[in-house]
Structures are given as C-alpha cells and as structure tokens.
Amino acid sequence: xxxxxxxxxxxxxxxxxxxxxxxxxxxxxxxxxxxxxxxxxxxxxxxxxxxxxxxxxxxxxxxxxxxxxxxxxxxxxxxxxxxxxxxxxxxxxxxxxxxxxxxxxxxxxxxxxxxxxxxxxxxxxxxxxxxxxxxxxxxxxxxxxxxxxxxxxxxxxxxxxxxxxxxxxxxxxxxxxxxxxxxxxxxxxxxxxxxxxxxxxxxxxxxxxxxxxxxxxxxxxxxxxxxxxxxxxxxxxxxxxxxxxxxxxxxxxxxxxxxxxxxxxxxxxxxxxxxxxxxxxxxxxxxxxxxxxxxxxxxxxxxxxxxxxxxxxxxxxxxxxxxxxxxxxxxxxxxxxxxxxxxxxxxxxxxxxxxxxxxxxxxxxxxxxxxxxxxxxxxxxxxxxxxxxxxxxxxxxxxxxxxxxxxxxxxxxxxxxxxxxxxxxxxxxxxxxxxxxxxxxxxxxxxxxxxxxxxxxxxxxxxxxxxxxxxx
Length: 472
Ligand code: PA5
Prior knowledge:
Number of helices: 16
CATH topology of the largest domain: Rossmann fold
Bound molecules: 5-phosphoarabinonic acid
Structural class: alpha/beta
Distance between the termini: 62 Å
Largest sheet: 5 strands, mixed
C-alpha cells in the first residue's frame, strides 16, 4: 500500500500580504508542529498503551483513537472472525439480514460520525428507496440525540408501520450507543424505543434486536445485562466520544448499512502513516493546523468556515464542528467552527463572508469526481430562461464555476481561503478525512496549550438539568 494520502491541501489563497499569513511564518512554525507531532507518539500514545505514566498536564488523555484503525486492521488480519472487526461484521450482517429498519440511539460523539458516514457514502435518498435499491440493507434512523417530544413521537409512529415490501415483516432493531451509559437524552429515548419494540415483537425478541455499544460498566451496560443482549460492543477505554467514529460507535451502524468499513479503516491507516512520517512542509495535517492557527494568531481570524461543496458532506461538517468545538473551545480560547454547504449557503451567508468582519477563513472541501452520470442543462424550445447557450454545461461545470468564482471573489477582497480536495466520496477517502480532522484537532489543542480531550464545560448543564428534574 502506498503511504501517500489521496487528499490534497492547498493554502496558496491564505498567503496574503495584508490579510493573511506568509510562508515564512509557516516555516517558522514547522519545528514546533513537528515537536508536537513527535510528542503525540513519544508521550501520548505510549501512555495510552500503559507503557508510561500520564503526565498530570496531559490528563485526561484519550489518545486511543490515534492508532485504533491500525490495531483493528492488524487484529482482523490475525484473528479474523474472533477479532473485534470480525465480530462487528458478523453482528452487522445478522442485523442487516433480519430487520427492515434500525434505530440508532446516541448523542454527540455517539452518533454524529455514523450519521456523517451514512450521508457521505449512501445514496442521497437512501431511506426512501426500496429494499432492492438499498442493496438489501435496512433503513436507518437516528434518535436519542434530543428530547424533542414530537420528533420522537414521529419516529415511534413511523417505526410501528409495516411497509408492504418489507421482507422482514416490519421487524426492526435498536443500536443504542453511549460511552458513559448515563446520558439522559439517549437513556430516555432508549426507554421509549425499547418499550415500542417489546410491545410490537415481544420480550423474547429483545436480546437479538437490541445491540448496545457502551463502556465496560455503567447504567447501559447493566441494562444490557438485564435484557440479555446477544451481541454488544465496547467503546474502548481511552477513546473519547467525539474521537470514536472509527470504533464500534461508528463502525457498527456503518457496517449495518453495508459500508465497507475495512476500506474506511484503510483510509484512516493511510492518513496515520502520512501524518507520522511526512515532513512538516508536506504534511497535510500539520499544514492544515499551521495555516488556520497562524490566521488566528496574527489576524484574529477566529471563525473557521468549513465550506463543503457537496451536500453529502454536510453532516461530516457537523461532525467536525462538534469535534473541534468540544476539543479546543476551552480556557476562553478556541476558534468557532461553522459548516456551510455550497452553493446552497452562498445564498444565505456569502454576503457576510465576502464583506462582513474580517474574522473568517474559508476552508473549502472539494470533491473531484461524481458517482452518477452528468446532468446537462440541455436545450429548450423558445429559450425562455436564456440558458440555451449553456446547454452543454453540466451540473459539475456549474459547481466548478461556482467554486472558482467564489474563490476569486474572496481572493479579490483578501479573504483567506484554503482547499482540501478529495478525489471521491467513498469509504477510503472518508477514513482519510475523519482521521485527518481528529489528528489536526489534537495537534491544534496541544499547540494552544489546551487539552483537546474531555469536555468539562458540558457537565454544568447536565448537573443543572438533573437538579431541576429532581427538585419536587
Ligand atoms: O465527545 C464527547 O465526548 C461527547 O460529545 C459525547 O459523545 C456525548 O456527550 C455523548 O456521551 P455518551 O456517549 O457518554 O452518551
């Protein structure tokens, strides 16, 4: 396998004399970035593997995500079905073949990665398609990520219906994901959906149709014991929620809907190899961090716009917003991430991005190929909309013109821009992208003197909510 990732990062449009940064500033930062990268492998990873004591200033330390893809793939090579990956594949196949619908319950890091993978790699209207058009895979829904009564009722209503063409007679399953096992949104939803499943299919169906993904102990682990769940998976120790997409948290749902999780992990493996070995100047991760960090430091650019030029990547952007915000938004520091989907949001946000406060960098994510045949504008008799002169232009031509035109407009006004290019949206490229963003977030945290792991600030609302609920 080549060690060169397929993603490319171009930051030429951020090298702006008056409003951006210079290559010299980036060159000066490389030694520091290299030291941080090397420390991740010399301090964080060995500490995670219990070969060293975790220094006090690095606690909590959830560095387990770093080499997780490599470990999962190596274990699968050695032990096949007995390995964790082998078990995920086996359970996913069982669920895939025995139900029409799957409800994934989880919040934050416990569902956003799976959602991103589904939206990126499945057909756009996956759930609307027939079973045959879905490749024989069940429909999938996400809940437990809110306490919205009507939204939950809506899904409960839907799940009780049986479609004529459902080969499994309307059977459905629950994948309930919570690392702590105590998150109230997920726990409250689990009660609802468990009750619905029980009343529809009987108590005896539950052990086969409820698959928990949780920590070794906790309320959800106890609940799973009480149900007698046939299969269950661990959120590994040392892998934090928002870094868990390439653990069973993301892999099980992805595999249930038929995604190639081996290729997903191979993509992440490739990014790991690149990150660990490439010189800083050629290193995608370090350049992405360096450019964004310097813009913040020298130009007070503290809004990071992730500008995705594909609808399929919207929830990948939301996954990244959560990863970045919860990791580096601490100690009154940390830029604000914001995902926009273009060209859609050019009609809602571009005005501000072009002429508003100079506190934004546009980080484009551009996909270089399409899955489907190209749609052309085509001829229309009478030319009512005057588009006949563009009749041979395809949607891709329109998209490319919009990307080039937008970049030119921002360049003309000295608005810093970068572009991350993906050759395609598939499992391998998604593995590269997700791993790149997780590594970049950790590097940036260390660069800012912020521990990227843990989320102490979120505890406050949880405690207040609990107190309010329990006060008579
Ligand atoms: O990144 C994180 O740690 C959080 O977003 C968690 O994933 C989220 O709070 C859900 O936690 P849990 O999996 O314990 O239910």
